[in-house]
Amino acid sequence: MEYSAITVTPLTPGMGGVVSGVDLTQPLSNLEVEELHRALEDRLVIFFRDQPIDHTAHKRFANYFGGIHIAPSTKPWQQPGHPEITVMHADGDSTFVAGEDWHSDMSCDAEPPLGSVLYLHTVPPVGGDTAFSNMYAAYDALSDRMKAHLDGLTAVHDAVVGFGGITPEGMKLPRSTHPVIRTHPATGRRAIYVNKGYTTYIEGLPRAESDALLGYLFDHVKHPLFQCRFSWAQHSIAFWDNRCTQHSATWDYFPQVRSGFRVQILGDVPV
């Protein structure tokens, strides 16, 4: 894919691209925005280095791709004065980190976010990578018989899973039903849309059959051939398309600090 305002260096043949030649601390030109849209569609997740953005720049960047999605389940971690921004922080006192299981962000919401923009200002000296997996490639690798079996099935996604099966007092967590295979609204490509982080069962199947099928898909989507892996540095940004990727945060840096902020972009109802 050709670009004139930005440079995109592929991370792997199948997905991921490191973008250079753009300054996200400043407003972007129409051409830069248009090419970033194309880069995201082509690479599924794009990365930026040396971008010390503040909250204003973070939200401005997200708004180039749609309005900002504020998920009900992120309320306890919202940045004071900036409800659009979720604090992502782990240190020596942490007992867990968000996103260790493979997942698509907030698939439990009725209209899950189009994408997520994660900025890290503090990173451990080594470790803390994020792995991403290509759900187009995962779907394409299924047999025709399996594709036919999954076609038309729907699955329940429940935010309670992310809280260890317990609903925190005073919170109303979302629970939604989405197709097992979704069609990307921009590319028209099909992608697997069940994930270990939120999906609980496939509707219309006996529970044992649903568990077995989901277990197969949860293992299938994390095949190394579908993946790329991003090694963070201070002031790096990752922007991924939740509609056709899953990701997993690697917590191998305890008790070191890994800290930053995430903004999510409004999506639509999966079809």
What sequence of helices (H) and strands (E) makes up the elements?
EEHEHEEEEEHHEEEEEHEEEE
Largest sheet: 9 strands, mixed
Q: Percent of residues in beta strands?
A: 25-35%
What's the name of the CATH homologous superfamily of the largest domain?
Clavaminate synthase-like
Q: How many domains would you count in the coordinates? A: 2
Report the count of strand segments: 17
Radius of gyration: 18 Å
Mean pLDDT: 95
Top CATH class of the largest domain: Alpha Beta
Q: Provide the CATH architecture of the largest domain.
A: 4-Layer Sandwich
- Shape, principal axes of CA atoms: globular
Which consecutive residue ranges, at least 5 long each, have pLDDT under 50?
A: none
N-to-C CA distance = 27 Å
CATH topology of the largest domain: Double-stranded beta-helix
Helical fraction equals: 10-25%
**Overall SS class:** alpha+beta
Please report the number of helical segments. 5
Q: How would you summarize the topology of this molecule?
A:
Elements: E1 7-10, E2 17-20, H1 30-43, E3 45-48, H2 55-63, E4 68-69, E5 78-79, E6 82-90, E7 115-122, E8 130-134, H3 135-140, H4 144-150, E9 154-158, E10 175-179, E11 181-183, E12 190-192, E13 199-202, H5 207-220, E14 227-230, E15 236-241, E16 245-249, E17 258-265
Parallel strand pairs: 2-3
Antiparallel strand pairs: 1-2, 3-15, 4-17, 5-6, 6-17, 7-15, 7-17, 8-14, 8-16, 9-10, 9-13, 11-12
InterPro entries: AtsK-like, TauD-like_sf, TauD/TfdA-like
GO cellular component, one term: cytoplasm
Keywords: Dioxygenase, Iron, Metal-binding, Oxidoreductase, Plasmid
